[in-house]
């Protein structure tokens, strides 16, 4: 399968995303994941739209799991797998958009994806409650606390929401800007290549009418 230059740029940005997952590099919930998963749905089509971002996330999570196990002997937690259905939701959202859509519209889609990620993952944290937090009672009040205040001894989830929105908008904007710049360059190169035969034909005089012979 031949990849376009824009696909190559997308793969590079996926690699950069893995680097942003390094522990302590970003504030809590300030992640490139929301924007890049959304944009993968926008710019990739067919099988690429699904296995490339999900494989990237699996590699990143595997590296993080190895790091935490090596540093603190903390194994991978099963509840992290609940993120993957949400990634599928973001990919599906991205497929409602098109690469030709405006920068603002695509950034808005990325922010919407970040909101969905926050809402769904915090709801999953409340429902499964893997750490047995007493605040996460199976009531409407417990669910609302999971979306707003979180658990005692930790920053409120409202602060996480702010970082989620900022990073969703920022990384979607950077991703879309890079892709549109590559598309412009690629289109210009294709146009120049298409004009070469016509220019060469013109220089060689192909298709020019012959001058009439003199009757004098």
């Amino acid at each position: 399968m031949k990849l376009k230059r824009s696909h190559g740029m997308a793969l590079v940005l996926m690699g950069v995303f893995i680097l942003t997952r390094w522990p302590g590099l970003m504030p809590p919930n300030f992640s490139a994941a929301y924007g890049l998963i959304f944009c993968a749905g926008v710019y990739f089509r067919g099988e690429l739209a699904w296995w490339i971002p999900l494989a990237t996330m699996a590699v990143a999570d595997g590296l993080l799991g190895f790091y935490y196990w090596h540093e603190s002997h903390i194994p991978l937690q099963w509840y992290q797998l609940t993120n993957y259905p949400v990634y599928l939701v973001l990919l599906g959202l991205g497929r409602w958009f098109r690469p030709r859509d405006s920068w603002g519209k695509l950034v808005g889609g990325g922010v919407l994806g970040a909101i969905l990620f926050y809402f769904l993952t915090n709801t999953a944290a409340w429902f499964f409650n893997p750490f047995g937090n007493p605040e996460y009672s199976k009531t409407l009040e417990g669910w609302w606390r999971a979306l707003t205040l979180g658990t005692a001894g930790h920053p409120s989830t409202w602060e996480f929401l702010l970082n989620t929105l900022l990073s969703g908008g920022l990384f979607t904007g950077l991703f879309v800007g890079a892709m549109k710049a590559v598309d412009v360059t690629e289109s210009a190169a294709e146009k120049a290549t298409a004009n070469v035969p016509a220019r060469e034909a013109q220089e060689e005089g192909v298709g020019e009418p012959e001058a009439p012979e003199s009757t004098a």
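The mean pLDDT is 80. Residues 4 and 186 are 9 Å apart (CA to CA).
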